[in-house]
From TrEMBL:
Keyword Transport: yes
Protein name (Swiss-Prot/TrEMBL): Protein translocase subunit SecE
Keywords for the protein's UniProt record, in alphabetical order: Cell membrane, Membrane, Protein transport, Translocation, Transmembrane, Transmembrane helix, Transport
Bilayer topology: Single-pass membrane protein
GO annotation (BP), single: protein secretion
Alphabetized GO MF terms: protein transmembrane transporter activity
A GO cellular component entry from the record: plasma membrane
Localization per record: Cell membrane; Membrane
Organism: Virgibacillus salarius
Stretches that traverse the bilayer: 23-44
Signal peptide annotation: none
Presence of the UniProt keyword DNA-binding in the record: no
Family of the protein in this entry: Belongs to the SecE/SEC61-gamma family.
C-alpha cells in the first residue's frame, strides 16, 4: 500500500497542471458548452412535447 501511494506521488509530480489563465479559459469553454447543449436539448424536448400534445 505504501509503495502504491509513493508511485502515485511520483507520477503526480510529472503532471503538467494548467496555469491560471489556461484554467479560466478551459472553465469558460466547458460552462459555455454545457449551457449550449442543455439549451439545445431543452428546445428539442419542448418541440417533441408540443408535437405529442397535438396528437
Amino acid at each position: 500500500m505504501f509503495r502504491f501511494f509513493k508511485n502515485v506521488s511520483r507520477e503526480m509530480k510529472k503532471v503538467s497542471w494548467p496555469k491560471g489563465k489556461e484554467l479560466t479559459s478551459y472553465t469558460i469553454t466547458v460552462i459555455t458548452t454545457v449551457a449550449f447543449v442543455a439549451l439545445f436539448f431543452f428546445l428539442i424536448d419542448l418541440g417533441i412535447t408540443q408535437i405529442l400534445n397535438l396528437l
